[in-house]
Amino acid sequence: MKEKIIEKILMILACSAIGILALITIYIFKEGLPIIIKVGINDFLFNSKWAPTKGHFGILSMIISSLAVTFGAMILGIPLSLACSITLAEFAPPRLMLILKPTIELLAGIPSVVYGFLGVLLLVPFIRDYLGGPGLSLLAASIILAIMILPTITSISIDALQAVPLLYKEGALAMGATHWQAIRLVLLPAARSGVVTAIILGMARAIGETMAVIMVAGNALKIPTSLLNPVRTLTSNIALEMSYSAGDHRTALFATGIILFIFIMALNVLANSLMRKK
Amino acid sequence: MKHLNPIIWQLFVKIQLWTLTSLTVSILVFIIFFILFNGLPQISWEFLVTNPTDMGRGGGILSAIVSTLYLIIISLFFAIPLGIGAAVFLTEYTREGRLTKIIRFGVECLAGIPSIILGLFGFALFVMSFGWGWSLISGGMTMSIMLLPTIIRTSEESFKAVPYEYREVSFSLGLGKWSTITRVVLPSALPGVVTGIVLSIARCIEETAVVIFTAGSSLRFPNSIFESGRTMAVHFYILAREGISMPKAYGTAAILILSILTINISAYLIMRYFMKRYS
């Protein structure tokens, strides 16, 4: 009898994760949907005029900026993290791997505000002096985000590479392949779904990052035409205006959150289904 | 490229890979040393035990430390029982099936939700609907949602690492399921569970977006959990972004980095100890 009650209680605790997820979804939509209905989904998504106090709620420029910043971060971050994961999983001696893996994972523990701070202090002046523009830019945000997503992609990819049965590699080596050929032709294809999952989760992290991006991206409300343009992403828009918003303006910020939420959920579901396949 | 001797090619690739890896590691080392180099000279006993004055230009960071501690305690208070309970259910009470799949999917999604969305949610639910205003309790409740996936996952892993024989021996001695869990499985899995909790503390310390939306940024010393409080990360953000005081910003950042380093290293050591025991 007591056992049965305990089991029921534990089941409720376990289900609370889903309950909370549902609650979050409901709340974000409940708070944000009214403004999307009011101005129309087309005008909300495909109009880049954002002047909430004057009744203009177009978030196109922010969607493009978010995607551009994420894309930039992926271009810089993927080669770097894949290189790290291959080196650590295959070439590094086990002892070094034991030190380097937690070291790289430590990058994930550094507060995002610290990344933003260093970006403003060192990266932004560098871009301003050597490449031009205001320095606070799409490029700066991409570089900072690339560093921030490194640990996510690296550690999941290492796990994926290590999950490939040793036999595969041994087979390739026995056929006369060099270590690198075995990695490129056997290990990487075998670990592909894991590596892709890692990249998708890194992408979700990049698109959702807020504080570091606010500090280095410049936050201008314009569709970027160059890497050196200042940009405002979906996340920074919410964080910048939340404190003084009210009424329709606040609803519109929640609506910005809905769009972000949909992006993130799509990426999560994609990553999840890839992981299943494996 | 195809005609190149594969062994020379491999050497070439290896050099590239090692260069990129060292670049990554040096970025990390640089960040830590840069902050500590500039920040450590600002830290003194004074800095830790006095309240900030003049918007943070003077004094120390006592109120920020206390707010951070409150936030950690409140969020763990909710996240630990919920997370461990869920993990026990997932590993000890069910076979893999539809329900566990749904729960795992929920946990994965929860882990993927960016802090800004959680911040919005916490603001809408706790700050507005519950009428708690910007307060440490609103912040802690929201943070506990953020910690939940980490705690569930690490606890689950550590329960799974406990050999099944332990449970069989306990059953054969006549202990029930629940007693087996509390007296045999939990104690054996404790180091792993503690690792998850320790890492959660680090998440509380480094988080900014959630906290600023739900706990606010009042610099006053928090006398109760229903008051607003400014954690160290938020304090650092405001000092740095509004250019209030660079020395104080560096000092706060150094404290942040030092605590994160300590926490991560101890989590790593606990986990290694745990892995050694069961391998």
Layout: helices, strands, pairs:
The complex is a heterodimer of chains A (278) and B (279).
Chain A: H1 2-39, H2 41-45, E1 50-51, E2 56-57, H3 60-91, H4 94-109, H5 112-130, H6 138-163, H7 166-174, H8 179-190, H9 192-208, H10 211-217, H11 234-241, H12 247-277
Chain B: H1 6-39, H2 45-49, E1 52-53, E2 58-59, H3 62-93, H4 98-112, H5 115-129, H6 136-161, H7 164-172, H8 177-206, H9 209-214, H10 232-241, H11 246-277
In short:
The complex is a heterodimer of chains A (278) and B (279). With 278 residues, chain A is mostly helical.
Report on the architecture of this protein.
The complex is a heterodimer of chains A (278) and B (279). With 278 residues, chain A is mostly helical. Chain A folds into two domains: 44 residues; 217 residues, MetI-like fold (Orthogonal Bundle). Helix content of chain A is 79%, strand content 1%. Chain A is built from twelve helices and two strands. The longest helix of chain A has 38 residues. Chain B is built from eleven helices and two strands. By secondary structure, chain B is mostly helical. Chain B folds into two domains: 37 residues; 233 residues, Orthogonal Bundle (MetI-like fold). Chains A and B meet through helix 1, helix 3, helix 4, helix 5 and helix 6 of A and helix 1, helix 3, helix 4, helix 5 and helix 6 of B.
Helix count of chain B equals: 11
How many beta strands in the DSSP annotation of chain B? 2
Helical residue percent band of chain A:
over 70%
Helix content of chain B: over 70%
- Count of folded domains of chain B: 2
- Taken in chain order, the helices and strands of chain B follow as HHEEHHHHHHHHH
Uncertain segments of chain A of ≥5 residues (pLDDT<50)? none
Shape of chain B: globular
Largest sheet composition of chain A = 2 strands, antiparallel
Mean pLDDT of chain A: 91
Which descriptors would you attach to this protein?
heterodimer; A: 278 residues; mainly alpha; MetI-like fold; 12 helices; 2 strands; 1% strand; globular; B: 279 residues; 2 domains; 77% helix
